[in-house]
Design goal:
Layout: H1 4-7, H2 24-34, E1 39-45, E2 49-54, H3 66-76, E3 87-90, H4 94-103, E4 107-114, E5 119-126, E6 130-137, H5 141-145, H6 153-157
Parallel strand pairs: 3-6
Antiparallel strand pairs: 1-2, 4-5, 5-6
Domain VOC: 13-137
Length: 158
């Protein structure tokens, strides 16, 4: 006999984004030391194979349709610049984190900007060929749900 719990897909325990970095040392220094992602593990192997796993806190997977991706670029940068994959990091202070990361080698694409969804977002080109967004939430989750256009697809399905 199968119970309802047995019919659910297996729980995902972790989201791990794997990035190949030509300049491994620069990427590790930037993300670990400048951005402040704690080192969780590091491994090395034959032929100078190396990997470091950095703890990025809680992970989410943000899936946006093309119109939303264009809108985010327009709000954050004022033009279309993002590749298909962009990595976003929630920080406590977008302005100081942006300054720190630019000093550590990132290129600022757009300075911290207040978005319609009430976060303070900046856009940077970072090592390892990643375009990143730093975001600081200006409202808590309950306050954001009261904003026009903010909700969940699940809530719309009900």
């Amino acid at each position: 006999m199968t119970t309802h719990d047995d019919a659910r897909p297996p729980a995902v325990r972790q989201l791990r984004l794997v990035v190949e970095a030509e300049d491994y040392e620069a990427a590790v220094t930037f993300f670990r030391d400048a951005l402040g992602l704690p080192e969780q593990a590091a491994f090395s192997g034959e032929g100078d194979a190396r990997v470091v796993i950095l703890d990025a806190g809680r992970a989410t997977l943000e899936i946006a349709n093309p119109a939303q991706k264009r809108m985010i670029d327009e709000v954050e940068v004022g033009r279309q610049v993002a590749p298909r994959i962009r990595v976003a990091f929630e920080v406590d202070d977008s302005r100081s984190a942006t300054r720190r990361l630019v000093s550590a080698g990132a290129t600022e694409i757009a300075p911290p900007t207040v978005t319609p969804w009430q976060s303070l977002n900046s856009r940077l080109d970072a090592p390892a060929g990643l375009q990143i967004t730093l975001f600081q939430e200006l409202l808590d989750a309950d306050e954001r749900t009261a904003l026009d256009g903010f909700g969940t697809d699940r809530a719309r399905e009900d």
